[in-house]
Queue: 3 jobs
Job 1
Amino acid sequence: MRKSELHHCESTNRRFGLLYVSVVVGAFLRVFHLGAQSIWGDEALTLQRYAAGESLAQVLSGVWHSAFHPPLYFVIVHYWCLLGKSEIMLRMPSAVFGIAAIPLIYLVARRIFGPPVPGLSALVLALAPFHVWYSQEARMYSLQVLLALGSMLFFLRAWESRRPMDFALYGILTVLALYTHIATLLLIAAQGVFVVGAAVRNWRRNLPWIGIVAVMLLAFTPWIVQFMGGRRSFTGIASIGFGREPSPLHLGYGLYTFSVGYSLGPSVSELHFLSSGDVIRRNLAVILASVLVFGALMILGLRNAHRKNRMGFWLILSHLCVPLGLAAAASLVTRVPLNPRYLMVAAIPYWIAIALGVDACVRSRALRVIPAAGVLLIAFSLYNHYFQPAYAKQDVRCAVALVNDKARPDDVVIISSIELGGPFTYYFKRQDVSYVGYPPGQGFVDPNALPRDMEQILHRKKRAWLILGRTWSSDPPGLIPAYFRARYELVEQEHFPGVALSCFSLLR
């Protein structure tokens, strides 16, 4: 073999070696402890309401009339759950979608930048705690990332080749992404800004893209009409972090989660119960470290993109800034706070920018400490995700297991958080014990109605089990436990991550 051929083979092996490592590591992180945590409220909704039904028509009808999100993911789960409904089986599609996204981001980055950026992009996505989180949750977000990457890949191919097949595949994948999550509209807006900026002097080049976008939006119009006319509830899309009113902190927190996920620094409970000032003061060191490390990587990455490929720089910048800007503007208009999971399409260019920043640092001996610090922060976040109860989902499984074991037929179970209702019924096995959610429906406990309601619920019962979750959405001042402590004897109490279980004797 000639030296040039040998050098080419070695270069190819190195180029794909990082991709292979990324896929293996990413697959391990997404499957590890997949069923370890209890399911939570949105996962229970996926299984019990939106993916439930005897036929495809029933699933589509249920999603069409009551779901906030489009139906594609729920249809997939409906058929997948024919194989089983355990925690692992319920979450496995999300894990598979998450793993499949790793080689796809490699292909997207390779269309724009040369080695080693594609391999580094795959590695950044494989390790990203934010993506790992949603690859282990029975919701549609990892599927949205996968389809958005497919949309970006064929968008770039169509932009370069102008072949009808590439345009067709771009349109199909984008429509599928739209029918996975409505926030994919932010991706189309970003692509529109890129097209206008890149071909501003050659408007004829824009015509095929305009035509395919018109077809895509026409295909998605039925859901938009139904969504707007169906008066979907926005109760469940409040922010994770820094209060309930729209704030610039929400945008910053979104970028923070793209970097280190939800399992480093402030926990979900802290973000709901503490003021933004208290949250920042409690976690100042780790917040500062994350902002400095990943802020530096992003700035260096954008600079590196500008040096390597001006068109690639414009693509990354438009796909990052347009979704963030539009989401922030929509938040201010609707007064609905931003939630990082609705910014998934902006996370993709962010991760590629981080990979570009790592590339810039690796080529400079003095800057190599920055990506090393980033890996350390990610490692701490992943450890917390798997092993620290403070960052875990509410452990309804263990709480209900205790009730299943010890409840008596003349007991009543009261679930005080709306987020616990679905998981409770998923795990509850006792058909001889009654249960009730309180307060009924959505909203907060009414202190004036509480005594009357409890008198009706407890009538002719000898014991009451209270299952109290993270009650920021139902009983923040703790009126229900205070009512019981003032009137009845506490006979048993247990605490699990995010859940407090109490049993009161109702014999005065």
Job 2
Amino acid sequence: MRMRRLGNTGLIVSELCLGTMTFGDGEGLWRAVGQLDQAATDGVIRAALDGGINFIDTADVYHAGRSEMLTGQALRNLGIPRQQVVLATKVHGRMGRGPNDAGLSRGHILHAVDESLRRLHMDYIDLYQIHGLDAVTPIEETLSALNDCVRAGKVRYIGLCNLSAWQIAKSLWISERRGFERFQSVQAYYTIAGRDLEREVVPLAKDQQLAILPWSPLAGGLLSGKFKRDAQGPEGARRATFDFPPVDKERAFNVIDAMRPIADAHDVSIARVAIAWLLARPAVTSVIIGARNEAQLHDNIAATGLKLTAAELETLDQVSALPREYPGWMLELQSADRLNILNPPQT
């Protein structure tokens, strides 16, 4: 398990991060995602730590707070020293019926951070992330509240999830102008079956030294190898009952067709190949993996030991490539002349 720096900080995190959406017994979509109780949660976290993972990601909205509770209690049950684990959680989702029980207002953030700390049985959160866009609250208000959380010692670093490139750039500019803490990480949907992030967010993250933390590397289980083209997935599979995130199924199965012989050649699962491809992307800091059981977790962790060849990576890059869009193709065309002076084409 390799260790990497989180954004432009001195915080070191493992290249895999344990996601906790499966921890809990919630209803509705949460029931489809996972139903791990305390004993099962303890086992998964123990296996993750034994596998070299030091980074755990949760959210207040997961199973209505139950995931945070189970995560915090598991670390206590296992006797894990607080400083040995990098703990991330999130704020934004609805946590009550009132109009102010969701979003990124100052009031909700300052209340939510205390509630998360209470559920986690912790004094501080290593990485506190906004879970998405609040179209009502000005971003200045959100950043000011997050800055206060850091100054109060309740939070060490802040991150964001699921924002567009221009929103991220605006946030960084406001933080610099106002002297606020800046975002250090971008948690976003990124997988070989969905590379949209590469159009704008990845270049921005590389330029601004933001850590990229991909969620759903297996595209909601579609890349687990259990699904077949023109056939419903296996009974009990999450995507069979909760078809999310949206995926171009035709392109995804073309990718699976290309991954299958590579997986066979290495005698590994298709899931390992999908995770190994992400780990090889230069902008990725830590890939978030979830698990319904320890066996699934062990298989995902084993992806860190899979080294795809240059030829295999090229094959996967080509089959999963995004369709060309403007202004991308124009930027490539106009940049070619100057770049070729420094790096002449091989003949």
Job 3
Amino acid sequence: MKTKSTNITRNFHLVTQDERTTRSGHRAGALWFTGLSGSGKSTITEQLQSRLFDNGYQVSVVDNDLVRRGLSSDLGFSHEDRTENIRRAGEASGLLARAGRLVLSGFISPYRSDREGARKAVGEGFHEIYLSASAEICENRDAERLYEKARAGLIPEFTGVSAPYEIPQSPELTIDTGVLSVEETIALLVDYVEQNFRS
């Protein structure tokens, strides 16, 4: 998306990323969790945040419910609006990462091009995490019966039913949350973070 504003100058900050890393004891970045509704994004990001916080990380969660209630409250669920929602979420994640935080971003983000846009917004600290639970497993977990309502035509443009989900082609990490328990997934992710972000 091209910037419409023309009178923009770049500010150079007095606190560097290296200084932030030294102070916090870890590198900044974003774990971008993508997968179908019901794959575990919200549960995993919240529990992982708690575990990492206890381990001394400066960590924040940016998820779809949070962004939709505020930053994207003016958007619907058309293809265009979903793309704009992910663009905003990517920029928000990038801002937090540049402030030295480890960001856990949980979004269905069904389109590869949108996820690539988020990667560019965050920069080199972006890690795409694909939660690969199958549609059948996700639907079986669906206490709100969203899949059932979508199949009945009550929810238009529902990802995995009436709208596509483009599977990541080369994510940094794939986790089958249809096989692993939440605790096993969190343990795997804590180890992944320690290997990739601890300075």
